[in-house]
Amino acid sequence: MTRIDREWPRRRLLGAFLFVFVAVTATALAESLPAEIDRCPYTGRFPVEIRLDAPVELHPLTSGKIDIDRIDGRTVTAYVNDAQLADLRAGGYAIEPIPNQARRAWARERATGREDYHTYETLTAELQQIAADHPDITQLITLGLSVEGREIWALKLSDNAAIDEPEPEVKYSATMHGDEPVGTELCVYLIRLLVENYGIDLDLTAMVDDLEIWIIPLHNPDGNASGTRYNAQGIDLNRGFPDPAEEPDDDPTGRAYEVQRMMYFQDDHRFVIGANLHTGALVVNYPWDCFDGQYTPDDAMYLNISLGYSALNLPMYNSTQFDRGVTIGWDWYVTQGSIQDWSYYWRNEIHVTIEQCSTKWPPSSWLPSLWDDNREAMLYYLQQGRIGVEGFVTDATDGSPIEATVDVVEIGKAIEGDPEHGFYHRMLEPGSYTLEFSAFGYQPRTENGVSVSAGTTTQLDVQLQRETWYDVSGTITDADTGLPVGAEIFAVRQDSGEIIRTTSSAPPSGDYSFTIPSWQYDIVVSVPGYVTVTETRLVNGDTVVDFVLTPARGELLVVNDGSATDDLATGAAALEYRVIEQTVATTDPSAWGDYDLVVWNAGSYKSPASIRSLRDALEAHVAGGGKLLVEGGEIGYDAAVTPGYPSFAANVLHISDWDADNAGDLELIPAQASHPLATTPNALPSTLGIDYDYYGDEDAVVPQPDATAIFGTASYPSDPGVLVVEAPGGGGQIVYFAFDYSALSNGAAARDLLENALDYLMGDAQGVAEDGATPSLRLSRPRPSPARGTVRLSLELPVAGRTQVAVYDLTGRAVRTLVDAPLAAGRHTLVWDGRDAAGHPTSQGVYFVRVTTPAGERVQRLMQVR
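^ that's the sequence the OP posted. Answer follows.
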């Protein structure tokens, strides 16, 4: 079925008549909207005011995913698109578009110069200069790139900024709505105040000395550059975090790119207090946003800290809309996916939303006055990170730090300590408390009558006694040579996936050992060049687990682009490939060349390849000869139609158009029946069934002339479900699955298809023919490379014959002959221990392994480091 309206299946169904009415009305509205309406880039939404006759009318709006900005009395300001406007009017709401004042202010600033507002470029320059001028107390890092390739900067201020000290971590982030830039400027004012007065002002110096202060001035640089609330994927970042009321898992998969960046950043830290800065109102808003009528366990402290902020900001405290300038989120309006709810619920961070000005994008001449209003309040808020109780939790046996859970009985909201130092800090108001300390493998401990005084920190260090622990040991060897292997070993709790212990095997012997509590574990061994191996053991006594590692057929990087399934990664691992999984937020394109193949796993994700910098990186990767398997049932539509990525469609997917989804089963094109992808090493069936669920499962795309369709689709026989692009020297360079791999109905056929695709791609990747020899002669890349001694390569001979394998240095001098004998056809493992013919270790440098056989020659380059 052709895609007419891809979003309709997720809208509230109004009946067939209303569907037609809304569609026609929306078209008319789009043509008749007043000229002064400014649409938000990336979304087509525009601001509206909705006037309610009664408060009860608000519930359908908050539950219907309308993007509410604020509410004042019975007037709701929200952002809608044409269809939503028509839908709401058809539902009887009094709704009218209003001018997008923030976007107009942005346009004026853009036309006349940003004056005192920073652009992304000027902010970057100032932060870099501050970090250069104050290297001892600042550290500038990036959370990663935005959708359009801008860095999301985070500046740390602390007395030893380059060191992760056991101190309370506090933070501000700003401008997650790109058209609310005041927070960016006030963050810069705060940074300037702290660095310029360090060592001069005693209070400010003590603040930097006692805390680790993190400031993220511009969370949404793309939205800010375009004068819009949304990120470049058209997503409201403050509605995009895991929602405690609706989502059971704290999972970044498939979320807005900038949301993922923040989630990964906070996962690396233990923030005790934080706030995100906004404009459009004048209030401190604290959790919950999502649980209507409910209060957090820390409600009393939330209220008092929020009042402490507003009391230092008189315009806020004297609000006519909010009692003393504060509100609990749901009492203003219920919303899902806010950063403050996520931070508190899953990260145990006291987090609020601070609206610092009623005007979203005020004239820059207002900034000094706004700084005066907020300066003392912003300092006060961060200083609250010092109240409560803190200390170190350590192992009573060896004194090692413990990542403990610390629960306050009187409150019931536990926090997690720092695994590196065993440090914890629990914010508490004055009073007497009972604290419970617990950790996996340790006996719990209770501390009664812990007294906390106002404005100070109570120090409480705790040692925990171990429960019964046992030794786990073994030896790791190579399956082909029997030689010891140096590897990383992980003990992973099978029930939770938590890594409990990590160690390495000793290179000379391959032996390893560690001590862990009694439990059911997955013992995982990982080393470059070998298939990762997992052994499950119930450890209830001293346990020996030996590992024999099989050299991997290749090393794959699987980048999960919003896909929640790992069928491709799991399937490749089962085929004896070493698989490294990353997400779009964690992958580093500069390292893609270290892998034999990049697998882009989009599955049924509805917004794949939406990050421009990664699309550009994929284009560069294949332009440089890199191998790529790209998979997804939506990626073709997005690239060829909407939003449209013409260069990516042409140079990565090699498609010129899109025809449909739900195009039926995949049918082998008769002319390609002997193609290696259809035959080697598995003879694939002529039909591959697709279990179609919704549009993310399948694309029927039109191939470019330089691409070959191997499997078409039942409804569009010439539109490939499987498309290949041949490498210039022969073999495969790109394979494109225009469907969700997990939607294949026959598991065995899916496995065979994947093996064929990897074989087709990896065959050419594993060796470079110098003399036009048959491509079936393969020499893998050396693993590891760079190497510190022993390296391994895999050699596949198409025919038996005398084979010579030798190592040469950069000058062409023969260093070592590894093989000079007849070898049978098939696969052989080559091992070089990094020594020359006399048995001496070779020096650091570049070397070449040359294989000469009756079928031709192959050469691979490697590097030895010492």
